[in-house]
Amino acid sequence: MARTPEPPLVPEAEQVYLDHLGIFVPDLPPVAESLGRLGFASTPFAKHGNAPSTEGAPAPSGTANICAMFRAGYLEVLGPTGEDTPLARQLADRLERHPGLHLIAFSVADSPAHRARLNDAGFDPVSLVRLRRTVPTPDGEASARFDVLRVPPATMPEGRIQLVTHHTPALVWQPRFLDHENGTQALTGALVCAEDVGESRARFGRVTGRDGGARARTLDLDRGRVDFVTPAQLSDALPEATVPALPFVAAAAFAVSEIAATRRLLKARGVDHLDTDDGRLIVSGDAALGASLVFHQSGTDPWS
Questions:
Q1: Which CATH number fits domain 17-177: 3.20.20.80, 3.30.450.370, 3.10.180.10, 1.10.287.3610?
Q2: What is the pLDDT of residue 1?
């Protein structure tokens, strides 16, 4: 039987992907162990830097990450590195609000081309960032390169919302990091909780250039989706969930190859989780680094 082709890592032309979600933490060193307990393979610690306008080393951005990479999308965990920078201050401000998910990144083929559209939509995006991150490879270290276009925090209170263009996807999605004990294949969705669902969805639509769509509470993308719920509706998607602040990114969803195997792994490792009636597994709180992580069988709805 012919193998089903894997989805392309990055979008083409006018496509928009849900690229990755980011959890903010105050301290990165313990993260790899926490991800490993959940069954994720993690990338090594990597500091972020902004490419200089002239020759020289990248300027530290004040943050670093550890990631779990999937065949579609990834989960990023970010923490401070000690420098006093605008990005580090934003991370600290978000952590004071609540721990957990604070970043949604959408990937596009050409971030700079979206600047004029975002200006016209009233977002006044900050200057384009030429982000650099050193990554290990089997042949030594290399520099992963990204263009990142962020909108000002005041315009998107849900978190750090950005458009990213990958210039070196093969360095980011290295095959040795794509297999996970918990069977995760793809990042499939983000769940946003807001008082005014329609207004929040409309803003995300303007950021991504996807204003239309038949589903009023869902922003459908070429890969992945963002769903929106009110506080009163949150328990339908996340039973036992609490609301730390509004609006907020409530959960990340992951498709797994065999949900029963994921369930066995979590039980064997003593990871507290909710086994829902519709077959999803939800890990929240400290075990999920302050976030809510939803595992669902590949091909099923992440939020039910």
A1: 3.10.180.10
A2: 33
Contact, 85 vs 64, CB < 8 A?
no
Name 1's Cβ contacts closer than 8 Å, sequence gap at least 6: none
Of 107, 131, 103, nearest to 22 by C-alpha is 103
**3-state class (DSSP) for residue 207:** helix
Q: Could you say which of 2.60.40.10, 3.10.180.10, 3.90.550.10, 3.30.420.10 is the CATH number of the domain covering 184-297? A: 3.10.180.10
Separation between Cα atoms, residue 144 and residue 134, nearest integer Å: 6
Q: Quick one: tokens of 58? A: 């990248």
Query: Considering only 32-41, 45-54, 160-169, which range has the smallest mean pLDDT?
Result: 45-54
CB distance 274 to 288 below 8 Å: no
Closest CA to 107 of 165, 147, 66: 165
Give pLDDT tens digits for 138-190. 899 999 999 999 998 889 999 999 999 999 999 999 999 999 999 999 999 99
Q: State how far the Cα of 151 lies from the Cα of 14, in Å rounded to an integer.
A: 19
Residue type, 80: P
CA distance 297 to 281: 9
